[in-house]
Each structure stands twice: as C-alpha cells, then as structure tokens.
Write a structure and sequence with these properties.
Number of helices: 1
Structural class: mainly beta
Strand content: over 45%
Largest sheet: 4 strands, antiparallel
Oligomer: single chain
C-alpha cells in the first residue's frame, strides 16, 4: 500500500513538473497612427519537440508593449520559429516578439522584413513568419553628426550585418523612452539572438519609412568578441527618398 501511495505521489509530482509556462511580449511599432490593431491575433510557436497555438489578444495599440502568459502541458524544446495570424482586416505592424519559456532566457524574434499583418490590404500579408537567427548578441554603436539637421525624429532604420560566416538582420534602431539619433549623440542599439557571422566585414542600412533624414559619423558593430568600425566618410544621409545627398540604402565594408 505504501509503495502504491508513493508511486501515486511521484506521478503527481511528475505531472506538476511537466507544465510549461510561456510568456510572450509583443512590441507594436509606432511610426504610423494606424500601426496598432484591435483584431484578434493568434501565434503559433514552433519548438524542437512540439508546437503550440493560442490567442495573443485583440488590443495592440501603436507604440505599445503587451505581455501574454499561456500554460500548456507540452514540452516545446528549443524554440525555432513563430508565426502570427489575424482573423480581421485591420492593419498591424509588429516590431519584436520576445518569448520566454518557464525561467529560461528570452528568445527575440524580429520583423526583419518590415511586414504588416492584415487579411485585406495590398501592402500587408495574412501571415508573418519569424525565426530565431542565432545565439549571439550584437551591439551597434552609432555616432550622430553634429552638423545642422543631422538628427532624426522620424526615420525608421534597420541593418544587416555581414561577416565571414554569413549575415544576420537586426531589429529597428530604437531605445525605448530615449530620444534616439540626436545631434552629436552616441548611442548603443542592442540586438540579442543574432546569427554568428564570424569576422565582421560589412553593414548595410535601410531607411524603411520616415519624413526626415539622418547623418552619422561612424558606426561600430560588436558581436561579442568580434568588432568593426565603419566611417561614413562621404557623409551620406540616410533617408527614405534617394537624392543627390541621401540614400535609402547604404552598405559599408572594410
């Protein structure tokens, strides 16, 4: 009888330990007044062992953070990818999705292709797919020029880092609650879960949207033990519309 009771207790304890708590933090972009949505948003998380799908919610205002907790008896293993879907026609621009399983390290997913979610918009897609790129943390240190109008309040910038082993794509250059890209200012933009690109060779910058331009002196890319500084020696302005002094895309290499 005692052995049977002990077996039941062990089974009960084992069952308690199989519960998986998933915490999802959603960062909605804020550039447009209509960046947010009130439609239902569903997420599917793809793990090495199992996948799970659940409703994230239906309130994602522009420039907002939203945290959702979900519990399941499934063990996910290492999380590789996620997808986001909606049942509505509203337009939504998610910036970053962060997922933490139990007390593990958070995993960052970036909307690297600047996609907007909607079932009925020519500038959007019905499903957004994001995958973890790697396990390195890359920091981009940017020094804004002190020339007149060098600062930017509106341009949205992302980067691709190229190295000997390949490339990895960052999220948007923006530190929350800080006025970024100010004249004469040096700032760090930190991106976890980047791919290991080895020796850094190039960085490419993209101006996605915005009504003004940004001029920087130099930019240092540091991916843990690897680091490289790139100088904007030609003083090219980064802006959405290409012209004589500005470009929407620029690539700097060693």
């Amino acid at each position: 009888m005692m052995k049977f009771a002990a077996a039941l207790l062990f089974t009960g304890l084992l069952g308690l330990t199989t519960a998986t708590t998933i915490t999802v933090t959603v960062r909605t972009e804020g550039h447009y007044s209509y960046s947010g949505t009130s439609d239902n948003i569903n997420i599917t998380i793809y793990g090495a062992s199992n996948d799970v799908n659940f409703l994230l919610g239906s309130s994602f205002p522009k420039s907002s953070f939203k945290t959702v907790t979900y519990e399941t008896n499934l063990k996910l293993g290492n999380i590789h990818c996620i997808d986001l879907q909606t049942d509505g026609e509203d337009w939504w621009w998610p910036r970053t999705i962060t997922i933490q399983v139990n007390n593990g390290d958070p995993v960052y997913f970036y909307n690297t292709f600047n996609q907007k979610l909607s079932n009925n918009d020519r500038d959007s897609v019905p499903l957004i797919w994001m995958c973890q790129q790697g396990y390195k943390t890359c920091t981009i240190t940017a020094e804004t020029s002190d020339k007149n109008h060098a600062n930017s309040d509106g341009v949205v910038i992302m980067a691709t880092i190229y190295g000997k082993k390949g490339a990895t794509m960052t999220g948007i250059f923006d530190n929350d609650d800080i006025n970024d890209l100010e004249k004469g200012q040096t700032e760090n933009f930190v991106f976890p879960n980047m791919r290991d690109v080895g020796k850094i060779r190039c960085i490419a910058l993209r101006a996605l949207v915005g009504s003004d331009a940004w001029l920087f002196n130099n930019m240092t890319v540091t991916c843990e033990s690897k680091s490289k500084t790139f100088n904007n020696s030609e003083e090219i302005w980064l802006e959405v519309d290409d012209n004589d002094i500005g470009q929407s895309f620029m690539k700097m290499c060693d």
